[in-house]
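User:
Can I borrow your eye for a moment on a structure tokenisation matter? Would you put together a sequence-and-structure record for a protein of your own picking? Please set it down just below, with no commentary around it:
AI:
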Amino acid sequence: MPKVAYSEEDRQRIRSELVKTGLELMSRQGIQHTTVEQIYKKVGISRTFFYSFFPAKEDLIVEALYLQQPRVLEYARKLMNDPGLSWREGVWKFLHDCCYGEKKGIAVLTIEEQQQIFKRLSGENCQIFREKQRRLFGQILECFGIASSTERISLFTNLSLTAMVIRRAVPHTLPFFVPEAMDETVEFQIEAITDALEAMKNSSSI
């Protein structure tokens, strides 16, 4: 069979389709349950051709997360503009939906996936990832009507990611946690985060 020649435009289109398809699958069934084979077969290319775009699955995950960021921000804005929700209800629902991302179409990294991606990223790309993450969480704070600062963004990032990753880590990564109390634990964390955000909002709204 003769080798197919792809133009640069074709390659850019296929690359975009891989990222988009990867995000669709990961947001629906979870990152760890999404395989490279599922992605390239859905796009209609070979395994070998897939790896000419992304040397590893982790490289595609990073691009998919970048694609997801504006969608997450838009979802936060939608909740804040919902006349049927109070400010607190909108914030609570946003955090809750992120913690249960696979049920709401939001891809969130597990602890293991964070470690794998960190090992793959160069120092420069790690800084780019952190900066994009910092910008996203800052924009979410401002969407909540909270004046963002480096300290507030850092705290909000850590508190939010802690709730998200712990929910995914029980019981496999954190076997001594009690899985039967995980939903109640997540709700407690979300309440505490929402309390902290409300205090920030009341102290200096934008």
